[in-house]
Amino acid sequence: MTVLQNTLYVTTSEAYLRLEGETVCVMIEDQKRLQVPLHHLSAFVLFDHVMLSPALLGRCAEDGRSVVWLNRSGKFSARLEGPVSGNILLRQAQFRAAEDGAQTLRIARAVVAGKLRNSRQVLMRGARETDDGDEKEALVRTAKLIANQVRKIPLAEDLDTLRGLEGDAARLYFEALPKVMKPQARAEFPFDCRNRRPPRDRFNALISFLYALVLSDCRAALETVGLDPQLGFLHAVRPGRPALALDLLEEFRAPLADRLALTLINRGQLQAGDFDEREGGAVLLNDKGRKTVIAAYQTRKQEEITHPVLKQTLPVGLLPHWQARLLARYLRQDVAHYVPYLYR
């Protein structure tokens, strides 16, 4: 159980949260393990089989507090929402843009350009940090290939072509990413390709978990601004799929999730004992590992950076909110272009 930035994370399976007056109590095996004033909390993120009392659920819905359930691997399971809020005019603009093929392609191009450029930056940073000449050369070479894909983005005339460019660049990126890992860590974190549902190795399990955390923040950011997280531009719309949140996630996969995963591994903060192997070959973070990752993620969110577009200093945790605002400005036609977040 961790309270960070007004969000209560509960990772202990079978925990039960109840409301006592204006206080949230976390009960484990009928023992009170944590007590937090309700007004200190703006969101709950619950893993595995964590339950809330009807009274607490009702207050969260009434007050507009976010409650998100994730499974053991960090995959989204459910979300509690109160009355729909937000500017209806903004949502109308979003729906008009989604029905306009040229607008959809323009936004999707920006999202993919941001994703590929940020992926390239992670590889270039790895090239600067390695002492191995051959690996440095390989990382720089892959970064150049990804840069070539970025230059092709304005020429993509439809979403399928654009997604093909993204897929090719992602394959190159993940093939090179193990070289950003310190050699002594590679035995415990072997990685040769991206796999999921379920992840088959520790590195895939780690980044899948981090992607789920960032996705939850992206969805909350879009809802706060007043956008519909279900209606995306790059990702196809499907029932129950937060397509726009997935679009926004693309910009943050490399700089927030992948880079943090590599930092945890290279600093020895995660080891093989922080993961469990399941029947069928699935690999998942265990309770200890999840707590380590959540704490590191929240620490990262509190670090301050200068936003490349706004030229303002802000916490990393607010980046999804500012990108959601920039997208809203574009949809309202307050600005001429949507500029994705660019990692430095």
UniProtKB/TrEMBL annotation:
Its cofactor is Mg(2+); Mn(2+). Its EC number is 3.1.-.-. Pfam families: Cas_Cas1. CDD domains: Cas1_I-C. Mn(2+) binds at residues 166, 235, 250. Coiled coil: none annotated. It comes from the Bacteria. The keyword Metal-binding applies. GO terms for molecular function: endonuclease activity. Keywords: Antiviral defense, DNA-binding, Endonuclease, Hydrolase, Magnesium, Manganese, Metal-binding, Nuclease. InterPro entries: Cas1, CRISPR-assoc_Cas1, CRISPR-assoc_Cas1_C, CRISPR-assoc_Cas1_DVULG, CRISPR-assoc_Cas1_N. It is an enzyme of class 3 (hydrolase). Belongs to the CRISPR-associated endonuclease Cas1 family. HAMAP family: Cas1. Homodimer, forms a heterotetramer with a Cas2 homodimer. CRISPR (clustered regularly interspaced short palindromic repeat), is an adaptive immune system that provides protection against mobile genetic elements (viruses, transposable elements and conjugative plasmids). CRISPR clusters contain spacers, sequences complementary to antecedent mobile elements, and target invading nucleic acids. CRISPR clusters are transcribed and processed into CRISPR RNA (crRNA). Acts as a dsDNA endonuclease. Involved in the integration of spacer DNA into the CRISPR cassette. This is CRISPR-associated endonuclease Cas1. The lineage of its organism: Bacteria, Pseudomonadati, Pseudomonadota, Gammaproteobacteria, Methylococcales. The gene is cas1c.
